[in-house]
Structure formats: structure tokens, C-alpha cells
Amino acid sequence: MKRSRLSWLGFLGFLGLLGLVTGKVGMYGFFGFFGFFAFRSIVHDERLDATVAAAGRNAFFAGLAIFVVTSLSVSFLTVSAARVLAGYAFAATYAIQMLVFVVSLIHYDRVGAVA
To answer: Treating both helix axes as pointing N-terminal to C-terminal, what angle do 46-75 and 79-111 enclose, rounded to 10 degrees?
Structure first.
């Protein structure tokens, strides 16, 4: 039986330790990837493939929409305000995209019906 390769994303959680070493609190967000280690106990099958594909599709379209809104909002700001906001805005885009993926994955796993 094959194990899920999704659990390998859990190793990205160790990047959060760089936040402790460098003092950059933005790196602490990587600790959220440790949750993917929970998928080590799940056997890889066709249902998991369909669930991950559907959750990835949701995250892709959410990220695409948020990126457009973020890009437009940053482009209408002054140069000094855009520099400050751009880093936070694009980091939030990535965080929301990962959140949509995880919430969709949990939802599709519980419901069992993938569109």
C-alpha cells in the first residue's frame, strides 16, 4: 500500500525555525505546514487524488482572484505606501490560498463527494 505523498509538505514546517533564529516573525507561518504530517497515516488511493485535485483547484482560483485584487489595490497606492503594503498583501495572498486548500481538503474528505 502506498502512503500519501501529501505528508512531505510537513517538512516545510521546519522553515518556521528560521524565524526563531533570524527574529523574523513572518517565518512563523511555516509552522502551519506541520499539520500535513497527519496525512502519513492515510493510504494513497484514487479518492485522495480526487480530493487533493479538487482542493487544489479551489485554492488556485481563490489565489488567482485574490492576486488580481491585491495587484490592483497596490497599483493605486502611492509609491511609499505600496512598498509597505505590497509585502504584506502578497504574503496574505499566499496564506489565504493555503487556507482555502486546507479547508477544502478537510471538507471534501468529510463529505466524500468531489465535484
So the answer is: 160
Q: State which amino acid sits at residue 30.
A: F
Helical residues (DSSP H) of the chain, grouped into ranges: 17-22, 46-75, 79-111
For 13-39, what is each residue's pLDDT tens digit? 999 899 889 988 778 888 888 988 888
CB 67 within 8 A of CB 93: yes
Phi (first) and psi of residue 43, to 5 degrees: -80, 135
- Spatial separation of the C-alpha atoms in residues 113 and 79, rounded to whole Å: 47
Return the C-alpha torsion angle 85, 87, 88, 92, nearest 10.
130
89 grid coordinates: 498583501
Number of C-beta neighbours around residue 7 at 10 A: 16
Nearest to 94 by CA among 62, 56, 71: 62
Q: Mean pLDDT over residues 39-57, rounded?
A: 87
